[in-house]
């Protein structure tokens, strides 16, 4: 379904590795799918990357991935939008995946320059209709021969919801309803969803689904996580009184003290607004859209102050803290939590997903995480089309809400790698897939919008329904070798209990659940853990912790006790996981944000160097076990063969697999004294540690 729209020959593409004007000549083309640079030099297979996307090449930019386009006129940069009177001598394209492309048009024919520049600006920046997306061109022409589901639960049938209720033991108090079949309740709600068993069909229909608690997940102790779309705030008194009475009746169906407790949390008042999130991310991404080496080293001097001023990491910290608060209510207080938001499709999705990743080990498997995204985001009605601004209709609606979730999940993945079946590379390619318009997953605002656009009637005289692909079929983008990078070889799989022990284990679990936890019994234990960890925390974190603790007394103390208590115990990778959120524990997702900046790469360093050594060791252990031909060899993961061999780990970049193998040494022109200071860094660290210890003793 791809059509060539315009092209230009003799275009010079700069290589970004250093400040020189080195580059390569080629052809710049624009299609209804992407902007692509076709290199004149035929590249040899020696430089073929180990991790290659079959859909989008390294010199390809999908139209939805274009962030901003600048033209250079007499060494001055100018943002290009709409109609152009004068055409630039140089074109700079900033991408949403943070790549930066520099094209020189000085040697290109004037007519071709006009066509290619105006074509690129028009097709990537101007508002368009939904059915003009390449998604529909591809879906009408592509053969439907892919697997599609790959064990991912799509939540588009009633059975999927009932199975999820059974899996989480929530079917006693909650029911899957068909009230919205034909979208007669609301176009924003999915066809099927789950509500408390006492909620009637009339109640769901009364306010088009507003004010109805919709079930997300049930904890092992019976407490449930729910979400609700709030009523509009500006209304007349009679309407608001009726709605208040309606809500009181609904709350009584969930809150039945002392057996069933309910805590409501209005996320619009307790978390940053979508506008704040968008502003913070816009500032944050500017730190990584680097044109050249000079710019990189200029910003490097004030890196920490620039990073802090964006407020992006602070937003991640606040979101993770909120998720821990919700987990505490569910796990320790056995209280139902109702998340409230205007539409319940933005921050509700973030918090509910994070809580499930933290509390449910199934959501930390690849298929479980994909099913979670389907349930809470795709079917749950998150407006991907508006929030990603795929149609360029309104910047006001744009906000990186899904990207915020992936950033938060990455914090957990890098803090507890063995707990996740997938890798940070998986999260990175998932974030990139937001801008690949051949998958329907991230290109609709709701299930209703997708269903109404699935019929091909009236579109290019095609009457058959469109065959949309799901992003969860990774074979469309990657071959098996590349897919191996998405799976964590060090994942601690959940051990399957022996049949002889199964009954005993289950019996103990049931007894534990049936005993009520009173405040008096639990407070002693929590106090013990509090005392044990206080001294350690003070030593490690010093006064930084004061900034983290809230000024409000009781909720903060309760939260802190829960947080400290959990962190003082050994980690169960298949149980509750709480992220570390103190001080510098919240980090920048280096692989996603720094992967295109050569200066930020550590050759032969980073986590990939460690992983390469471990994989070699695992391969050796497996080969020995095969030789011994023991029964226990079956216990070793069968995925080891599928893990690519990472030879010469000293040549690998820390941002592998996105950064290629080391080809040349890139060293900025810094004074010799500066390099000497960097080499003496170890001594400085040791002295700094001694200072921290001294401060701890003084405290």
Please state the overall shape, judged from the principal axes of the Cα atoms. Answer: globular
The overall average pLDDT, rounded, is: 83
Number of alpha- plus pi-helical segments: 25
Structural class: alpha+beta
Spatial separation of the terminal alpha carbons = 68 Å
* Rg, alpha carbons: 27 Å
Largest sheet strand order: 4-3-2-1-8-7-5-6
Largest sheet, strands/sense/barrel: 8 strands, antiparallel
The count of strands amounts to 14
Model regions low in confidence, pLDDT < 50 over at least 5 residues: 457-462, 501-554, 637-641, 661-679, 684-696
Strand content: 5-15%
Q: In which range does the helix fraction lie?
A: 40-55%
Characterise the protein shown here.
This protein is α+β, with helices and mostly antiparallel strands and 699 residues long. Among the domains are: 4-126, Pleckstrin-homology domain (PH domain)/Phosphotyrosine-binding domain (PTB) (PH-domain like, Roll), CATH 2.30.29.30; 158-455 and 468-485, no CATH class. 41% of the residues lie in helices and 12% in strands. The longest helix is centred in the C-terminal third of the chain and has 23 residues, at 519-541. It is globular and about 75 Å long. The model is unreliable at 457-462, 501-554, 637-641, 661-679 and 684-696 (pLDDT under 50). This is Myotubularin-related protein 12. Belongs to the protein-tyrosine phosphatase family. Non-receptor class myotubularin subfamily.
């Amino acid at each position: 379904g791809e059509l060539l729209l315009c092209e230009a020959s003799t275009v010079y593409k700069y290589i970004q590795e250093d400040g020189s004007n080195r580059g390569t000549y080629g052809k710049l083309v624009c299609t209804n799918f992407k902007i692509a640079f076709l290199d004149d030099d035929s590249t040899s297979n020696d430089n073929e990357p180990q991790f290659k996307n079959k859909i989008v090449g390294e010199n390809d930019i999908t139209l939805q991935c274009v962030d901003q386009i600048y033209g250079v006129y007499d060494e001055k940069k100018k943002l290009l939008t709409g109609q152009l009177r004068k055409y630039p001598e140089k074109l700079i394209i900033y991408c949403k995946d943070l790549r930066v492309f520099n094209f020189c048009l000085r040697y290109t024919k004037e007519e071709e320059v006009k066509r290619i520049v105006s074509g690129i600006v028009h097709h990537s920046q101007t508002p368009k209709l939904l059915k003009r997306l390449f998604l529909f061109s591809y879906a009408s022409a592509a053969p439907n021969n892919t697997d599609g589901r790959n064990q991912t639960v799509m939540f588009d049938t009633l059975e999927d919801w009932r199975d999820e209720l059974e899996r989480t033991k929530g079917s006693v108090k909650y029911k899957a309803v068909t009230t919205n079949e034909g979208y007669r309740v609301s176009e924003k709600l999915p066809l099927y969803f789950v509500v408390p068993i006492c909620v009637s069909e009339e109640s769901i229909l009364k306010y088009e689904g507003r004010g109805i608690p919709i079930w997300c997940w049930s904890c092992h102790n019976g407490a449930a996580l729910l979400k609700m779309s709030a009523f509009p705030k500006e209304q007349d008194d009679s309407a608001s009184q009726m709605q208040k009475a309606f809500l009181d009746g609904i709350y009584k169906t969930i809150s039945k003290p002392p057996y069933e407790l309910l805590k409501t949390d209005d996320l619009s008042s307790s978390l940053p607004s979508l506008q704040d999130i968008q502003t913070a991310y816009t500032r944050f991404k500017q730190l990584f859209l680097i044109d050249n080496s000079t710019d990189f080293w200029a910003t490097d001097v004030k890196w920490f102050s620039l990073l802090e001023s964006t407020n992006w990491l602070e937003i991640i910290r606040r979101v993770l803290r909120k998720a821990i608060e919700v987990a505490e209510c569910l796990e320790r207080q056995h209280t139902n939590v109702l998340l409230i938001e205007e539409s319940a499709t933005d921050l509700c999705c973030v918090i509910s997903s994070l809580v499930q990743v933290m509390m449910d080990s199934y959501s930390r498997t690849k298929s479980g995480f994909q099913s979670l995204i389907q349930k809470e985001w795709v079917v749950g009605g998150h407006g991907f089309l508006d929030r990603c601004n795929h149609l360029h209709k309104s910047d006001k609606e744009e906000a990186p809400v899904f990207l915020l979730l992936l950033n938060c999940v990455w914090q957990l993945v890098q803090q507890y790698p063995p707990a996740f079946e997938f890798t940070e590379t998986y999260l990175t390619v998932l974030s990139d897939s937001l801008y690949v318009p051949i998958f329907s997953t991230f290109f609709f605002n709701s299930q209703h919008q997708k269903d109404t656009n699935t019929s091909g009637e009236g579109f290019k005289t095609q009457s058959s329904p469109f065959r949309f692909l799901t992003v969860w079929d990774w074979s469309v983008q990657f071959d098996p070798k590349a897919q191996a990078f998405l799976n964590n070889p060090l994942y601690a799989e959940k051990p399957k209990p022996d049949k002889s022990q199964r009954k005993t284990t289950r019996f103990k679990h049931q007894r534990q659940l049936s005993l009520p936890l009173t405040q008096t019994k639990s407070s002693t234990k929590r106090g013990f853990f509090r005392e044990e960890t206080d001294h350690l925390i003070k030593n490690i974190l010093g006064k930084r912790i004061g900034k983290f603790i809230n000024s409000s007394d009781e909720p903060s103390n309760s939260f802190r006790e829960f947080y400290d208590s959990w962190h003082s115990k050994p980690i169960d990778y298949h149980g509750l996981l709480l992220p570390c959120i103190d001080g510098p524990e919240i980090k920048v997702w280096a692989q996603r944000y720094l992967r295109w900046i050569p200066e930020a790469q550590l050759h032969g360093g980073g986590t990939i160097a460690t992983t390469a050594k471990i994989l070699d060791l695992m391969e050796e252990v497996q080969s020995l076990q095969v030789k011994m031909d023991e029964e226990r060899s079956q216990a070793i993961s069968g995925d080891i063969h599928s893990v690519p061999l990472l030879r010469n780990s000293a040549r690998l970049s820390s941002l592998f697999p996105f950064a290629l193998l080391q080809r040349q040494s890139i060293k900025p022109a810094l004074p010799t004294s500066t390099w000497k200071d960097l080499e003496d860094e170890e001594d400085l660290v040791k002295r700094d540690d001694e200072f921290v210890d001294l401060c701890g003793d003084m405290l």
